[in-house]
Each structure stands twice: as structure tokens, then as C-alpha cells.
Amino acid sequence: MSRRIACVATCNLNQWAMDFESNLAHIKASILEAKRKGASYRVGPELEISGYGCEDHFFELDTVSHSWEALADLVSSGVTEGILCDVGMPVMHRGVLYNCRVFLLGRRILLIRPKLHLANDGNYRETRYFAAWKHRGVVEQIMLPPIMASAMAAGDSADQPQLTAPFGDGVLQCLDTTLAAETCEELFTPQAPHINLALAGVEIISNGSGSHHQLRKLNTRLDLIKGATAKAGGVYLYANQRGCDGGRLYYDGCASVAVNGEFVAQGAQFGLEDVEVVTACVDLDEVVSFRGSVASLREQASTVQSPHFIPVDFRLCKPQSCFGASASAACPSSPESRTLSPSLAITPQIHRPEEEIAYGPACWLWDYLRRSGGAGYLLPLSGGADSASTAAIVGAMCQMVKAAVDKGDQQVMQDARRIGQYSPDEPVASTSQEFASRVFVTVYMGTVNSSQETRDRASQLAGEIGAYHINFGIDTVVEALVNLFATIMGKRPAFRAHGGSNAENLALQNIQARLRMVIAFLLAQLVPWVRDRRGFLLVLGSANVDECLRGYLTKYDCSSADVNPIGGISKQDLRRFLRWGASALGYPALQSVVEAVPTAELEPLTKGVTSQTDEADMGITYEELSLFGRLRKVARAGPASAYLKALDLWRGRYSPEAIAAKVKHFFMYYAINRHKSTVLTPSYHAESYSPDDNRFDHRQFLYNVRWPWQFKKVDELVARS
């Protein structure tokens, strides 16, 4: 008795917006690898030809034209012969730009399927560039550009050039199965297309996605993928980008295959590989059996209108002779293998948040470094939790590079050799510390207000990571600026501890902070020259998401940098990361960092010990900041709603009056400092309540900081309590 078993492939690709050449190379490599593994179908990420993050470049017809040129190159190269391919790209149809899946077989376009539901919240702005296809079940014809006709005719002169292709909401009817697609956001919608497709008998559904990393988000995505086939059966293939494609987001891979509610294959969430292909052997008869066993499913399926089928003269399944083959966890290593066995169910891997903080930003930093042309990173390392977290993430990056080199990844080895400026006969990244010494510079810029403890912690951590560490004082520069002011204005400011006013105290703190930024950029330009190396260093910032939200940073201080890997991560999560990293990353100095009380060390010491603390300065704890951040953004709460929600959470812990005071304090200082968010250093997006004004959190930056109407309502609610 024959079986319908198909080997299918999905992938994680590290695409770069507008880099058509490398994007096309990755697509070709993934198709060739899928064919090598015996797959008859391959699906790739969303908009993989152009890259997902092109943003306003999608308004340029050049972007669409270059996508067609890349597709023509793909078709004419012959790599799509003998395999059904699903490729993502922007397509213009009747004057409207659509986010599309293009199904290819050999040198023919079988179907161009536009996205039905667009992502338009959070970091996504798809309706700014694309329109959704609103004609469900309708398929039209699109005229193909002349370059496609030439590419398609190049293979066999006997074939008639293809001048048009089906465009719309269709389903491929192969000789042995049916196949359809949905795209990224459609998986997350309440009425997801896969429901009706499954009820209509479609056995394989693919999803080419452009989904970014956010802490604790992966389990939601995996639940949706699993659920897509748990109720209605079927095979679901999920493909994704993996890497930094030119912006604040890190696309976190996890290409996977699910069958009848169970995962049978999963790719890595984080990694430095440009191309990862994930294959699985799926038994399509099991899909039919599963669906036939559920009475309610049969009843609903019998009422569904038939989709628009497009016949395809191709078989996804290899001939199978009997049921006797033993089960295997993967497809055969070569297409010549004739006996396929269904892939076994697996338990999907979900990283703990501390691992996500280590490896997501580390991969993002690696992509940024190798694509920017920089010679490494420079970090002002204060010995505090935030800069120590950033340093540990760079250390994790170096460890990942070392592991990839040991594994034989030629692209990583080539990039590491170039960035580390190794001679041709030198071994690359003999240890992670050796590599860090070439690409990572840390600087401790102390003043009379700095403690010996932070100086020692910075030095110890830099040594454990392997960074090139510089330790120096900046008092002469600070004093020179204070003297300049005194010469100009005839008055000399003093710290509060020395009788000065609040304005004087803040100004003297800000001088130190801003000078550190200036010195950091000076060193980033000249340290490579001092070390007889080429290029420049990228300056890293270390302001966490809570401090950015509260505005507890000096505008244009060391929070102003080239990039910030922790700008979307909360202080509480960073503390947990430091404890984990002390052992997991092998940096024991992190334990002493997390045990220390957070302080800016900008005010005078008392008997050699700092008396200034971050939470005292802010008038609010980091735990409370995280709560108010989530209430403001995730729960969409203004001051009145935030008070009511905080009252529910803190009832019995604080009085209504105390809760109201905390709410007012947070919203007042948020409003006072909102202007700082307009110039925040581009940060890795990791948290749902990020105040990033440029992409994620669009609000005014000039407020009535007294919130008179809102605070009056809070007072009324307190009176009722």
C-alpha cells in the first residue's frame, strides 16, 4: 500500500534590507540545500528578496524593479528546477503595491499570492506601503515584466514565454496534494486564513514571516503555529528572517514545521548562520485521517466554499512502497533515497529570558558590526549594572563567533578575519577573549566622585571578557569646563553637598556625563590608530528601558551612542541576566555588579563611599517603573486608569493616597523628560513598553506636566476609595 510522504523545507535567512545581491545569494543557497536534503517544496521568509525592513524604500519603483530582476536571476539560474519554491517580494498590480508570495516551479510562476491582512501596530507600518488583497477567493492575471519572459525562455526554447501569471487568493492543486500560503500577520488574526483553508481540504499551509524578537514572545508564536493544525489538522511550515536587517529589530528565526498539532522540526531562534534550512518528512495521509476522525470538523468542512484551485503538474510526494520503513527524525540525506519515514514529534525549544537577553542582542550587534564597516565596539564601562550588561552581551557575541568559527562557518570566519584584522596565516578567534581583545574596547572614565569599587569591578569584568581596557580620570577636563563657566559668568557652581542649589548640583553632574560622551567618541575614532589598526569603533550606549521611560539620563551623555543593545530591556530583567551570566557566560564579576546598589556616581563621595543612588534620585523603584511602563503602553492607561489598576495590584501594600502620589510622580517626570526620547540612541527592541519615539511609541514630546484634568480625576478616585 502506497503512502503520501513529502519532504518539505523551511528556512531562517539573514536578509538585509535593500541588499538584493546577498539576499538573492541566501535564497539560492537555501533552495540548493533544500534540494540536497531531498525536499520537494521550499518556503522562505516574508519579502526575502528585498528584505522586510525597506520601509519608505518601498515607495521607490526601483525597489519593485530590482525585486523582479532578482527573481529573474533566480529563475534563469536553474536552481528552482525540480522543486516547488515559495519566495517573498513586493509586487505592483494595477497600480497598487502588494506584499506577495511568488510560487515558482522550474522557470514558471504558478501563482502570486498577495497578503490578505497587514501588520500595522507596534513596530509594523505595512499599510503605509502596501494594500491588503480584499478579494477573497478571487484570482486575476498579472502582466509580467519583460525581464521575466526573457528569464523563463532561457531554459528551453520549446516552451512558450510566460507573459502573465495568476495573481490573487488561490490554492495550488498538485497531482498528489493541495498547498496554500498565509503570510506572517495572518497567523495572528482572529479569522486566520488557515482555518478556512484547512476546512477546504488544503493539506499543506506555509507562512513566510518577518517576525521580530521580543522577550517572552516566542511561546505565543509557537502556540499559534501549533494551534493552526491542532484543531483542523494539516501541515504548517513557518519561515522567518533571522538577524538585523538594518534597523532596531532582530528577526529571530525559529523556522518550524508542525503536523496535526505537534512540532516535527524547529530551527534555531538565535544564530550567526546566514542560511539555515529545516526539513521534515510529513505523512499527508495522517492529515486526512486526523481530519476524518473529528465529527464537528467534518460538518464544518462540508459547508465551506471551494477555494480557487490552480492545477500544477507536479508531485510533492516521492513514491513509497509500503508501511514497513522505520520512523526517522529527518528527511533522507539525498534526493535519490526512496524510502521516506515521517519525522517524529519534538518538544520545541524556548529560551529562558536571560538567554534571550544574551543571544538576541549579541547576534544583532554582530550583524551591525560586520555590515557597518566598523573595526569593533567601544563601551564606557562604569562598573554598574547597565554597562556591565552591555559588556557581557558583547562577550556573548565573541563567544558565538568563536563557536561558529570552530563549527566551520566560512562566512563568520571571513567576517571575523576582516573585522579582527588577522594576517592571512593567523588563526581566527583562538579564544573568545582573544577575539574580544581585537574588537572590544572598554573605558572607565573616573572622577573624584567615582568609587574604587566600581573601578575594580569594571577592570575585573573587562579582563574576564578579554576586552582592551583603558582606565583614566577626567577631573582635569571637568575642572577646565567649570573654570570656563566661572570666567564667563563670574560665579562658580557648587554641589548640593557643598551648599549649592539644585540647579548647580544638576549642572555639575551633567558636565561629567556629557564630557564622557565626547571623550568616548574621541577614543572611538583614535584608539584604532593608537593600536596601529585600521578603521573606527562604534560607541555603545547602556541606558535601560526603564531609565529611558523615566528620563533618568542626561541628554547627550553616554546614553548618546551609535547603538544600544539594552535600550529595550528592563532593569529587573537585566539584574536576572547578570546573575545568570556570572556562571553561564563565565564572567563571575557580574555577581558583584548585581549585588551593588545602582548609582550614577556623579555627586561627591561621603568618606570614600557614594551616598547617591538611582532609585532615590528617581523617587521611584525600578519595579514600580516597570509596572507603570506596562500600564502606560501595554495596558493603554492614562493617569486615572493607571491609578485604578495600581490600586488593584497594591491594595493592602500602599494606601490610596500613596498610590496616587506614585502615579502622579511617574506621569509628571515622564512628561517632563519625554523630549529625551526623541534623541534616544537606536536600541535593540526587546520590550513591549519601550518608549522609542522614532518607531514604536509615537506620542508628543511637549506636555502640560501638571496633567490638571487627569490628576483631578485621580484625586476624585482617591476620595471615593
Envelope shape: globular
The number of helical elements comes to 23
| Strand content range | 15-25%
- Please report the distance between the alpha carbons of the first and last residues: 74 Å
Low-confidence stretches: 322-329, 333-337
Q: Rg, please?
A: 29 Å
- Overall mean pLDDT: 92
Instruction: Find the count of extended strands (DSSP E, 2+ residues).
Output: 21
Structural class by sheet pairing and helices: alpha/beta
What percentage of residues falls in helices of 4 or more residues? 40-55%
Largest sheet: 15 strands, mixed
Question: Care to describe what's here?
Answer:
With 721 residues, the protein is of the alpha/beta class. Helices cover 40% and strands 16% of the residues. The protein is built from 23 helices and 21 strands. The strands form 3 sheets. It has a 15-stranded mixed sheet that branches. It has a 4-stranded parallel sheet with strand order 20-19-18-21, sandwiched between helices. Helix 6 (218-230) links the parallel strand 10 (204-209) and strand 11. The longest helix has 29 residues, at 502-530. The radius of gyration is 29 Å and the shape is globular. The protein starts with a strand and ends with a helix.
